[in-house]
UniProtKB/TrEMBL annotation:
Organism, as annotated: Gemella haemolysans
Alphabetical list of Pfam families matching this protein: FTSW_RODA_SPOVE
GO cellular component: cell division site; plasma membrane
Membrane topology of this protein: Multi-pass membrane protein
Membrane-spanning segments: 12-30, 42-60, 72-93, 105-128, 140-157, 163-180, 187-207, 280-300, 312-341, 347-366
BP-aspect Gene Ontology terms: cell division; regulation of cell shape
Superkingdom to which the source organism belongs: Bacteria
UniProt-recorded name of the protein: FtsW/RodA/SpoVE family cell cycle protein
GO molecular function: lipid-linked peptidoglycan transporter activity
Localization per Swiss-Prot or TrEMBL: Membrane
Keyword vocabulary terms for this entry: Cell shape, Membrane, Transmembrane, Transmembrane helix
InterPro entries with a match to the protein in the record: FtsW/RodA (IPR001182)
Span list, region Disordered: 405-428
Keyword Endoplasmic reticulum set for record: no
Amino acid sequence: MLNFIKNKTNLSILIFYFIFSFSSLLFILLAEYNNNKTPTLFLKQFVFYAVGFGIIYLLQKIPITYIEKFSIAFYLFALVLLVGIFLVPPTLAPIVNGARSWYNFRIFTLQPSEFGKIATVAMVSMLIKEKSFKDNTDTIKLLKLALVISIPFILVAKENDLGNGLFFIFLFLGLVFLVCNKGKTLFRIYSVVIAGLAIIILAALYFPRLLSLVGLKSYQLNRILSWLNPEAYKLDYSYQITQVLNEVKLGGLTGTFVKNKNYIDEQFNDFIFSIIAKNFGFIGAAIFLFIFFIFILRLFNIVKKCEQGNYSYYFILLSICSFCFSFFINIFSTLSIIPVIGISMPFISYGGSSLIANSILFGIIVKIHATIQEEYMEDEYYYDNYEEDYDTVQYEEDYDPLEPVYENNNNRYYEEEPQQFRRSKRKR
């Protein structure tokens, strides 16, 4: 394992995992300190990170081709976990905060929606890389994607897990941009989405009962109303976010370590960004955002090295979507830019299911990057051998330099551009 960490290729990505782990443990410890709690969650998160890193290490033993093949099985297994929530007795899957979305095994709890998210990412990546999928019309493509995404979405929505349910909608909208070839299709779908959001906000303001009729829960409606008019609900539904914003304001430019005036529930999870903003101020929050920005750029650099349109290419892109969705929804909820949704910040918020799920994504990305570097090294080896062989080739006077030259001993051939015969399957 030590050699795995010391490897420069791996370390260039693992460094972010280590930074996030240190930051997460520090912020959770501060959340417990600010709320006068014993640091038990800090110790549990340390164990979760140890398990997560162990999973990352084990994933390096599995070739990417096998991971791709297992995508369907992983997706089906995640669906079984989601369906199981409704089949097991309430003692094993109790209702917590109005949502029945957790398995309680006493020793640990498990949130299947987190694994449903990454399983859907893997499944969709395998689907859209197929040539048969790319040859379809935009309508057929979207119907296939809607089928794959809608199944876990419906199950998660049935659990009343709004935050993770919204991820599947976000994923579908991102895929619309990624796979559609016609601008009209993009315009129509995004126009419908914007119009739908406008209707929901207007209905919440003037016709709240209509939203209840279409399936919106009363607590979800109150979240929207308290976001639109926080003063009217400051003693109940907007009380928590009001306390969070007050603590954020105390941070100022450089931060403060004064304890909270009032207890803030879930500050170590849904409102973890308030800890950063309060204890480290605007400067600390800006540095933290910059680190995450560099992390995303690093992932995009890996995407550039992948063959456009293959499994690894789409998997990393969709993983970036997953990281960014959870990251910014968590921050926007904390700052009341959007209604409080209740979703963990990846790698930072307390929680084993979220951390393990994101560690799986992270581990596969590390494996993809390591595979690409191995292929580059193999390319260099074959390129060096090409130069040695190329010097020994005898040309005739009438030889066309643009025509390939064949060797009789092993039937290999080379052109003027040796890079066109890379051993790896990646495009240049």
